[in-house]
Design goal:
disordered C terminus, Growth Hormone, Chain: A, 0% strand, single chain, mainly alpha, 15 helices, 78% helix, globular, 413 residues
Length: 413
């Protein structure tokens, strides 16, 4: 059953297009400039090649912070003011990246881009929930999933195409242009969906109590940390993919093609998971995917060590594709399992879980990315360690589920 559509609002097709463009800002912010990382570092005086990875990492840092801000803010002020704030911060960050004269200025701009993009991305889900429910919401979200699959596949190729005709700053100009178009379209066509009588006052206490509940609940904490370790693998790959493919394997402008193949594996897994989860359940799929991921990562870590960190390109791809397929199975299921006990605080609980897992991923992925030494060894060994950590957390989680859970003070809905 869907809620009534606002009279002045867009029809469902246009609504989905607006939401898709809003949420695509995150993937575009991360993936669009991957082919330009080396040029950015050279022009802005990056201290060393691995420091270029921070251009990616700072976006994730901004997202982790922003996820704690925009959800509660939109519940208090309405959806549109919170989204407008996000666009304003994103625009400021984009201007800093375009005008950057040194590497710290670029990193500051990227932090603001991530902080700003968290607004349209996070609040758009609340907008969808305001307008649709049940099967209608599931239908809209299925269309949104197509965006999550397609954008990471095409974004590096689009960035590479821009570099063929212009300098790297043009990529950020293009990104700013997408943000402006998205803002104008949203502002003109999408009405406010949260009525004043449904709004809740801002409460730091509510957020702190949600964090306390997440930490005290072993099921929530376990799956949140597991999600963080798996996300760390993806972030480490994103940070070092340009160095591995363009420099180590000298693929040059072919880098986006190989990147797209790996991204497609995640997209395919999301599709397959949607078919399997109703039959086998989230717990079994997580366990199977995690055991497969551990086996793959340990096997390839050994292969990498034997080849002195220089395996053949086909061997690397033969390893990465099934790895990313396993990650695609794990991402949605782990987050859904973490949220199961938080139904009474779904909104603020989702913000805390997502932010905490992102912070964990940033810390772990930074260690792997900054260890890059011209070989695949740091990535392969890092993946093996992280997958084993996730497996250990799963066993700890299963053990804790049989132990008595400390009583927690109930939170107001």
């Amino acid at each position: 059953m869907s809620s009534p559509k606002p009279e002045s609002g867009p029809h469902i097709g246009e609504f989905i297009a607006i939401m898709a463009l809003m949420t695509s800002l995150v993937a575009l912010s991360i993936d669009l400039m991957l082919p330009a990382l080396a040029d950015i570092g050279t022009d802005l005086g990056s201290p060393h090649a691995n420091a270029n990875q921070l251009v990616v990492t700072m976006v994730f840092a901004g997202l982790a912070i922003g996820q704690l801000v925009y959800g509660p803010l939109s519940d208090s002020t309405g959806r549109k003011p919170a989204i407008y704030l996000g666009y304003a911060v994103f625009g400021l960050g984009s201007l800093l990246t375009i005008l950057a004269v040194n590497f710290p200025m670029m990193l500051a701009g990227r932090l603001l881009q991530g902080l700003g993009a968290a607004g349209p991305r996070g609040v758009s889900i609340a907008l969808i929930r305001d307008r649709f429910a049940g099967r209608e919401m599931a239908r809209v979200m299925s269309f949104m999933m197509v965006v999550f699959i397609v954008v990471p596949i095409i974004a590096p190729a689009l960035g590479q195409a821009i570099l063929l005709v212009a300098a790297w700053r043009t990529i950020f100009v293009f990104l700013l242009g997408i943000g402006v178009v998205s803002l104008i379209w949203f502002g003109i066509r999408q009405p406010e969906t949260l009525a004043p009588q449904r709004r809740a006052p801002l409460s730091v206490r509510r957020m702190s109590r949600a964090l306390h509940e997440v930490i005290r609940n072993p099921t929530v904490l376990g799956y949140t940390l597991m999600a963080g370790t798996v996300a760390a693998m993806l972030q480490a790959y994103l940070a070092s993919a340009q160095q591995i493919f363009q420099i180590q394997y000298a693929l040059g402008s072919l880098f986006p093609l190989f990147f797209a193949i790996n991204a497609l594996a995640i997209g395919l897994a999301s599709f397959v998971n949607g078919r399997l989860v109703m039959r086998y359940g989230m717990h079994l799929l997580v366990k199977m995917a995690l055991f497969a991921l551990c086996g793959l990562t340990i096997l390839f870590a050994g292969t990498t060590l034997v080849t002195n960190g220089q395996p053949e390109l086909w061997m690397l791809m033969a390893y990465l594709i099934p790895c990313f397929f396993c990650m695609g199975i794990l991402f949605g299921n782990m987050n859904a399992l973490a949220m199961e006990p938080l139904g009474h605080i779904a909104g603020v609980g989702a913000a805390v879980v997502s932010s905490l897992s992102t912070f964990v991923a940033i810390a772990l992925s930074a260690v792997i990315g900054q260890s890059y030494n011209g070989t695949t060894t740091p990535l392969a060994v890092g993946f093996a360690i992280l997958s084993l950590m996730a497996l250990g957390l799963m066993h700890w989680n299963e053990g804790m589920q049989h132990a008595p859970t400390p009583d927690s003070e109930p939170m107001e809905p």
